[in-house]
Structures are given as structure tokens and as C-alpha cells.
Amino acid sequence: xxxxxxxxxxxxxxxxxxxxxxxxxxxxxxxxxxxxxxxxxxxxxxxxxxxxxxxxxxxxxxxxxxxxxxxxxxxxxxxxxxxxxxxxxxxxxxxxxxxxxxxxxxxxxxxxxxxxxxxxxxxxxxxxxxxxxxxxxxxxxxxxxxxxxxxxxxxxxxxxxxxxxxxxxxxxxxxxxxxxxxxxxxxxxxxxxxxxxxxxxxxxxxxxxxxxxxxxxxxxxxxxxxxxxxxxxxxxxxxxxxxxxxxxxxxxxxxxxxxxxxxxxxxxxxxxxxxxxxxxxxxxxxxxxxxxxxxxxxxxxxxxxxxxxxxxxxxxxxxxxxxx
Amino acid sequence: xxxxxxxxxxxxxxxxxxxxxxxxxxxxxxxxxxxxxxxxxxxxxxxxxxxxxxxxxxxxxxxxxxxxxxxxxxxxxxxxxxxxxxxxxxxxxxxxxxxxxxxxxxxxxxxxxxxxxxxxxxxxxxxxxxxxxxxxxxxxxxxxxxxxxxxxxxxxxxxxxxxxxxxxxxxxxxxxxxxxxxxxxxxxxxxxxxxxxxxxxxxxxxxxxxxxxxxxxxxxxxxxxxxxxxxxxxxxxxxxxxxxxxxxxxxxxxxxxxxxxxxxxxxxxxxxxxxxxxxxxxxxxxxxxxxxx
Lengths: 324, 293
Fold this sequence. Notes:
Membrane topology (chain B): Multi-pass membrane protein
Helix content of chain A: over 70%
Shape of chain A: globular
CATH topology of the largest domain in chain B: MetI-like fold
Pfam family, one (chain B): BPD_transp_1
Family (chain B): Belongs to the binding-protein-dependent transport system permease family.
Largest sheet of chain B: none
Domain ABC transmembrane type-1 (chain B): 88-278
CATH architecture of the largest domain in chain A: Orthogonal Bundle
Strand order of the largest sheet of chain A: 1-2
Shape of chain B: globular
Keywords (chain B): Cell membrane, Membrane, Transmembrane, Transmembrane helix, Transport
CATH class of the largest domain in chain B: Mainly Alpha
Oligomer: heterodimer
């Protein structure tokens, strides 16, 4: 009986290293093998379905996508031709790529930068002991939980150049409404504003949590030293918020680069491709133009960009996560 | 006035316990806060109001703020243009099933990852965590081909199954399980409780806040999910609400705002109500990433 136990535990090197509660019962070895077998069965039963789903619907498609990116292949077509890196070459040299990249960069910088700045401002405001700030917080966060597509439709109505609320408000200021739907760069501005509105509350709430984690004595000490509130903000509060800022920067970057619903609802990437981002172009190439091989190559480019952002995050987080 | 008070340095020597601004700064704070709340809240209010207006009221200049006689005509019209009741039923069904299964998968997987010893446990954990970094976009084309090959286009399982696997939920559950007191589970084990009993009788009751957070986040994401169901379904009777909104947008065009906004209210109101009632738990779930890093 005894020789079986080391054999069973010797096979899986990972299981042996796990620091789980040591079993200090007398009849260990006999029960041990049975327990381990039962544990494995339970593990297969409990973790198996989730891991299997991940393998089938995430990892396998990921590999497939890399493979598809080397094919000249139309969605649903039985014929496919191997073109190596041809799709990538085509993407890098295509006349539309410059425009798409520029649009993506403008949209990303404007949404991420805008959401961070406005979100911090809102958080500083909500951090003050003002009555009714709970209501303000609720109203600010609400758009974040709503359907991006529905939000896009609702704002399309807000922006309607003839009967929208925004042209009315601009009218009060004596400004004529731009042609939001058709004249560049207004469609991109419109989509950016909606994205900001939807995500502002999230940024504000995370910043608020960061602000509330700052010890009051630090701010008191700054005040004692005669620092003005704006100087306290610059010299004490903002530096202590660095980890929060960094987290938000990465999160917002990732989500902005992947945004689709709002653009689909409001502009469908137009007019004349002026709101077509990298993400949107993947959808368009694969499901509108049917060029699934080429679209897979573009998807790989986006994937690499996102991976780079994540990699930067992982490097920095280890260094900057501890404070106060 | 506000700028002056805000900029004034606090008198040194007196331990000013916060409040660098006096009544003026406070007034400025309230003013800004009210303004921000109005600006952020107005679009939603405007949507509700517009959905109750007649076309004449909607297309009148200068704008009419309140509906003269609030009517549900737009809702009735939306329901006749697209099968609104069916869409609502589809959304509710898919959201409940999707969120329920996601929670169950995450819960069970996390239990195994924390309380069981088995070979390749670290590999399994790594597989789950790494998924958080894989954007769904890159998997969409192969998954679409797969689902089409299975004959699952225009089916509920086609919408549901590819997105079921739980990475975020598993992660949150695992984080929580690691904080549970080991002594209770050991005691349960000595009493002869098996894993199934331990999971449901001991771990689940000690995890209700995490359960609520994961469930609510899943409900919100399933309900709002757009791209995938939009690609998989073009049969109106199988669509979810956000996809049905696309159908309405395409058939009714941009001109009929009242009808389109009525449908938009139907899409947004349920989640808005969930948010208002269960705000604390939902926000805790949605912002959980920030705490865990």
C-alpha cells in the first residue's frame, strides 16, 4: 500500500507545490491516495466546465484567428488561399489605414484624457462634504450601467441639428448648431462626447475611492505648513493618487480601444469613414465586406496593441502599487 | 468671489481642520455639483419625456419641454414595428440564464482552485486569469464560424454559450475564498461534509456580497451585450432588446424619434431600476477591478 502514495504524488509536480492545509491525520497514506483521486474527480467536475468553455471559445479561437490572418478568405466561403503575411502588408500599406489609425488615436486620447480630467474634477467635488452628493454620484454613475447602443440612440436625438436639445441650448448662447451627423469633425466629436458621458461616473468613483484612502493628517499637515488648497492638491493629493491614475489610464485605454456599440449606433463608422476606429474596421471588414482573413490580421494588430498596454501595466503596477 | 476664497492660504498656526473655503467656496461647490448633476442627468430625463410626446410636440420649435398629454402611443407603435414583448422576454431569459450559469461556473471553478488539490491547478488558474487580457474581438470571427458550423445562428444557445465562461467572476470568487477562515471548513470536513455540502452549506453562505456583486455585474453585461448577439441573430423573434433597437432604427429611420426613444426606454429602464435598487452592490462589483489591481 505505501509505495502507491509517493507514486501518485510524484506525478503532478504542480499539486505538490501548492501550499494548501497540510493533512495531519494518522492514516494519511492510505486515505491520501483515495482523497487525491476524489479531489481530482471533484476538480474535473467543478472547474472542468469553465476551463473547457474557455479553451473552446477563447483559446482555440485565438489560435485560429492568428491562422486566419494568414489567409485570403471570405466569410463563409469554402475557398481560402494562404498569403503568409500578405494581409499585414496590405494593412500597413492600405490608403485607409492612416485615416483609421489617426481616428483611433484622436478618439482614444480625447476619451481617455477627457474622462480622466473630468472624472478627477468630479471626484474632488464629490469628496467635499456637500449635501446631496449621493444623488450626484448616482446620476453620474448611472450611464455607465446602460446599454452602449441605447445610449448612442438617445444621444443621436440630443444632437439632432433641427429638433435636438443641444441645438436648443446652443441657441440660448446664440450659437448655430453644427451639422453633427454630416460635417467633419463633428461626428467624431459627437461620439467622443457620448463616450465621455457614459464613462465619466466610473472614473469619478474610482478616483473618489482613491481620494478617500488618503490620510487626513497628510492634508492637515500641508495646511499647517501654510499650503493653499490648490498646492495641497498638486503636491500631496495628486502624487498619492498615482496608482489610481495609472489603473484608470490602462482600464480606460483598453475599453476605449475596444468601443463599438456607441459608434455603431450613432455613425456606423461614417460619414466617409471619419469615425471608423481600428475596432470598428475589424467589424466592417469581416462582417460588412466579408474579408474575414484580412479582418483577422487587423484584429491581431489590435490584439498586440492591447497586449502592449497590459504589459506596460503589469510592469508598472509591481513598482507603484504601494503607497501611504 | 469663489476664486478669491479658494485661493486664500489658511492662516498658519491655526490648525485648520479641512475647509480651506468659506461660505463662498461652499456655494461654488453646490453650484458646480448641481450643474454637473443636471448636465449628466438631463439626457436620460429628456429620453423619458420624449418617449411620451406626440410627433407634433417633438418636432416643434422652440422645443416643448414637457409632453402636453403624456401618452404611450410611441410604445404601442414600437411594439407593432418590432416584436417588443418577445424581445423583452428574450433579453430577460438570456440575461437570467447567462448570469446564473456564469455565477455557477465561476463559483464552482473558484472553489476547485482554492479548496481542492489537483494536478495542473496552477495551469488551470493561469488559463482563467489570462483570459482577462484577451479581448473578445479577436475571437469573434472564429467563434462566428464555429457557431455557424454548429447550426447555431439565430438560436438562443448561439447567443449564450460562447460567452458563458467566467474569468472575472472566478477571479473575484477566488480572491474572496482565500480570505475565508480555514477552521470552519476543516470543522465541516471533520463532521463528514463532502465538497458539495461544503460548497453550498458553508462557502456560499459566507460569500453573499461577492455573489451579489458577480451576479449583478453579469446581469448588466449580459443585458447590454450588443456585438455578439447582433452578429449571431437576424431573426426578430430571437433578438435581444439592444439588437431589436437596431432593427427599429433601420426600419423606422431617424425621423420617428418618439418611437425609437420609447424602445430605448424599454432597453435602459430595467437596468436603471436594478441600478437604483441595488446600487451599492452593483457598484462594488463594477469597481472591484480597481481594488484587486
